[in-house]
Design goal:
Structural class: mainly beta
Largest sheet: 6 strands, mixed
Number of helices: 0
Distance between the termini: 113 Å
């Protein structure tokens, strides 16, 4: 019976040339009066043509949102101009670049890794947070799916780069609420605009050379809202620190970033004004050697508040009794309500 013929090729009868546009395995039947001639059918393979960047596809779905300093990959599938997937690769010289006029500045680099069957992963990373307009090209031509936008978010907070973004209180009165704020920043200098980091602040009284513990004295910050130091995550990358010292004296205040493993690192670049413990050195008087130069370094000085009569005391029992007409002396210690 006559053979049912499917024509996958185009013939130019004058010279016998033919062309196919889909790669794969073919059988060529040569017939005369619907009868196969000698050696017909003949099997042969059609391989893809050379790579065409305009048809080659890049899948950037995994790189729409990235983290500063961490590489993300896009998947490239090499194709020829007819859309056939190439099964080889590794020397295509794909490049990943950003649009310099509409992307943040800073380090931006890439690398490629050939996988298998014409698939290549292109890795790229950026250190500055922001929206990037990214091109994946070959021979100067954008691949299909390029360019695309990639939103680079700040990396995790870095202790040395984070800083106080409001003034540290230097003077206060006992019982007065004081505050300042900390700005979270990653290692590349990107300012955080959302919350989630963990900071801690410890207030130490120099007069007692220990951290005050208790409800009246300043305690190390905890989740307990009755503590006199609290830190509030404002969910904007800023952390509000509030404290109410009730004991007059000099204090050193130490700020820390708490890492995922609960380790602590002091806030700020060492040697700068933004570095914990934010100390200032001031002149003082040595009561034992007043003629000697005296310098004391502190973060905060707290003065007593107004005198409270009920809290003030008379020294000793010297005024308990005395003779008529005699002059007597005694000492009154003026104290505030704390």
């Amino acid at each position: 019976s006559p053979r049912k013929t499917r024509y996958d090729v185009k013939y130019r009868l004058e010279n016998g040339d033919s062309m196919v546009t889909r790669s794969g395995q073919y059988k060529l039947y040569s017939t005369n009066l619907e009868v196969d001639v000698v050696n017909s059918p003949h099997a042969f393979n059609i391989i893809p043509a050379e790579l065409s960047p305009a048809v080659t596809v890049v899948d950037a779905s995994t790189a729409r949102v990235m983290t500063a300093g961490i590489s993300s990959a896009v998947r490239i599938q090499a194709k020829d101009k007819y859309g056939n997937m190439r099964t080889d690769g590794g020397s295509e010289n794909f490049i990943v670049i950003r649009n310099e006029t509409s992307s943040p500045k800073g380090l931006f680099d890439f690398s490629t890794k050939y996988l298998i069957e014409g698939k290549t992963d292109a890795y790229f990373k950026a250190e500055k947070a922001g929206m990037y307009f990214v091109h994946v090209k070959q021979a100067g031509i954008d691949l299909l799916g390029s360019p695309f936008y990639a939103d680079v978010l700040p990396a995790i907070a870095n202790a040395a780069k984070s800083y106080n973004n409001s003034l540290i209180p230097r003077k206060g009165l006992a019982g007065e609420k004081l505050s300042f704020s900390i700005q979270a920043v990653d290692e590349f200098g990107n300012v955080h605009f959302s919350g989630g980091s963990r900071f801690d602040v410890v207030l130490k009284g120099l007069a007692y050379l220990k951290t005050y513990i208790g409800s009246r004295l300043c305690a190390e910050v905890t989740d307990d809202l009755s503590s006199c130091v609290t830190i509030t995550d404002l969910q904007t990358g800023v952390y509000l620190v509030e404290f109410t010292p009730t004991t007059a004296g000099d204090y050193v205040m130490e700020g820390f970033l708490i890492a995922a493993d609960n380790s602590r690192e002091a806030i700020g670049e060492p040697g700068t004004s933004s570095a914990s413990p934010w100390e200032q050195c001031v002149a003082c008087v040595n009561p034992y050697f007043p003629e000697r130069e005296c310098i004391k370094c502190r973060t905060l000085g707290v003065d007593p508040t107004i005198v409270d009569v009920d809290a003030s005391t008379v020294l000793g029992q010297s005024a308990a009794s005395f003779s008529s007409g005699e002059e007597e002396e005694f000492l009154i210690y003026a104290r505030d309500s704390y």
